[in-house]
Specification:
236 residues; alpha+beta; six-stranded mixed sheet; four-stranded antiparallel sheet; 6 helices; 10 strands; 31% helix
Length: 236
Amino acid sequence: MKRFIVEDDFRQVFPDSLIGIVVCRGLDNSIRNEEEYREMLKEAETEALKHLTESEFSENGPVKVWREAFRKFKTKKGARSSIEALLKRVQKGQELRTINPLVDIYNAISLRYGLPCGGEDIDTFVGDIKLTKAIGDEDFIVLGEDKSSPPYEGEIVYKDDLGAICRCWNWRESVRTMLTDETKNAFLCIELVDDSRRSDLEKALKELSDMVKEKLGGTCEISILDSENGEAAIEP
């Protein structure tokens, strides 16, 4: 049985963090109606403007809280949270392109709620998945590159037995585990630095789960990991 584990060394840095996950099984991620997903993303981009009320981009809530979080561990120069990257595009008026249904869905949820969302293909995982501090020698290859770029020692990462899955917590993912049109079983996550927006997290997780089931079929199971609950099963 594969598990997702939030390890103690991560929890020591972010004791009040909440990691919401949706484990999806039996999906058809090859379903394509590009115009439908393009419209979904456009609507989410409009909704995201509610998170951009400050004239100084870095002072907007979702951006500020994650910049502060990234200062608590060693990061690659210029690395920013996934939600900041999305909101920056919205601020600049740059439309998101469709990628595949799962990615489009979680990007839309991310924009609506101002929370980092991500996803990986469960069938590519080797062993348990851990949110932890990197040793510094983990294999990590991103899309478009053929050379490994290991995380720094102490960097917050998602990893399995073969290497890092996502660097700098939610900055950039490995090509090895990314969601594709062939994905049948998916691990989706939404992250909070602290529990101040727990109700938003719960709503976002439910909406994410409902949208996946409605559009792609299969089953979805929601879990929230906190200081009292540090692991969840991701595969029977």
